[in-house]
Amino acid sequence: MKKTLSFLSLIVLAVSLTSCNSSDPKSVKLESEDDKTFYAMGFMLGGNLQRLSLSDKELQALYKGIAMASKNEKSEVDMATYQNKIQEVFKSRMDKVAVKEKESGKAFIENFIKTEAATKTESGLAYKVIKEGTGAMPSAEDTVEVHYHGTLADGTVFDSSIERGKTISFPLNRVIRGWTEGLQTMKEGGKTKFVIPSELAYGEAGAPPKIPGGATLVFEVELFKVTKAGAEAAPAKPAAKGKKK
């Protein structure tokens, strides 16, 4: 519940930052640096609104409520009644988005398996080996060094170490389940394409604003190094003492 309320507060802030007296926010000119700063803040926070699939009329209703409250005007609805309905509407919209994403993701995985002769595991993870590695294979407790490129099923990039130009290392049991399972099929020097259903990724909650609830994720991962659990922390053995003469 606290997460939902926090998310709703972000939405209110996003709308308040992007709304104005004009019925068309696009008509607002960004003239000063402050204008541009608040626009950037609103654009960033407003990404959460995508998850609610609001119509233009519903957005205008949000604008109106914020404008009237900010001017200390009387509400046109009974607030006690409609405050209780906020959670219901929020959950209903989020559930619909997640269901739609999961359905399209399922079709995407089926097509991936069919067209690219990919492998599907019992958990639902699908993968195709792009380059077979020759080195060590990691276990869930090991630390791996990788390069990766992550997109949604529609090709939208949400994260990429390749674009940042720097590899990343992490314990394999501290990431999403699809990664923990998938990278254990790889060897050092290998590269694999993974298609991960939401159940093995961020579930119905998603990871806003970039990853919607129920989203299927696509990763191309190159495994550079496997560091076995405890290897870095293992103390060096003392040098053998010479025999006394």
Please explain how this structure is put together:
The chain has 245 residues and is α+β, with helices and mostly antiparallel strands. The chain folds into 2 domains: 2-76, no CATH class; 118-227, Roll (Chitinase A, domain 3), CATH 3.10.50.40. The protein has helices at residues 2-18, 33-46, 56-70, 79-116, 161-164, 177-182; strands at residues 119-120, 126-131, 143-152, 157-160, 168-171, 191-196, 217-227. Strands 1, 2, 3, 4, 5, 6 and 7 form a 7-stranded antiparallel sheet that branches. The protein starts with a helix and ends in an 18-residue tail after the last strand. Residues 1-5, 16-22 and 238-245 have low confidence and may be disordered.
- Gyration radius, in Å: 24 Å
Quickly name the level 1 CATH class of the largest domain: Alpha Beta
SS element count, helices: 6
Instruction: Output the CATH topology of the largest domain.
Output: Chitinase A, domain 3
Please report which band the strand proportion falls in: under 5%, 5-15%, 15-25%, 25-35%, 35-45% or over 45%.
15-25%
Helix/strand class: alpha+beta
Number of strands: 7
Q: How would you describe the shape?
A: elongated
Characterize the biggest β-sheet.
7 strands, antiparallel
Helix content: 25-40%
SSE string: HHHHEEEEHEHEE
